[in-house]
Amino acid sequence: MKYINDFDKGFLDNKNILVTGSTSGIGKELALGLSSYGANVILHGKNENSLDEIYDEIIQKFNTNPVIVKCDLNDLDESKAQEFANAIQGSYERLDGMIYNAAIIGKMSTLADYDLATWQKVININVTSSHVLTKYLVPLMEGSKNPRIIFTSSGVAEKGRAYWGAYAVSKAAVKSLAEILQEELEPISQIRVFNFDPGKTKTAMRAFAYPAENPNDLKDASSLLSYYLWMLSEESNKTSERYIKFD
After folding, report:
1. What does the pLDDT read at residue 2?
2. Is 167 a catalytic residue?
3. Which of 167, 227, 228, 243 is an active site residue?
């Protein structure tokens, strides 16, 4: 597979990478996996105990310098985004990567039955927060030799699907957001923007959406790491593709 390469264990040494939603599922596996390759991971979530647990696990297993940024993305505004940026800047000289992984489904229902409060929460967490954080975090990427912004996509980003409501709308919006950032940032900076569709993966979100599905038929979230490593590497500078799918 062209997105799979063997990377030295230290190839992310001294790289500072944000992973939103890093206390469970894909985000947790990324936090651990990137740390194993030397990255200093900015751990984001809203549950303090869960953040402390993943922080302690990284400290025990790896020789890296993670930091915690606790934040409820549903409540994120420009002031809190600035505080988010200040927290990162207070710990590191620069930011090398942003992986937007945090997302919620909200509910599975017809649009006619979709309540406004849930709709707004899904859009806030899945789309708006990524826009606001990018606005305040991109300046921290100055000085990075290989900066990356990676969004997490879904099959419903390319074609809407009945009963997926705000989640499907949010993922279509994220795809557009990534494409806009690509056109705006790549001609004037070294930042490369990717959108990654992980496909069917064993997570709590997948179980919620497909309760009758056998989880043993799904791949583990840890199997996605090689794709993220490739996107974070200089190897990905050679491609014009920006929407990447798990093969």
Report:
1. 66
2. yes
3. 167
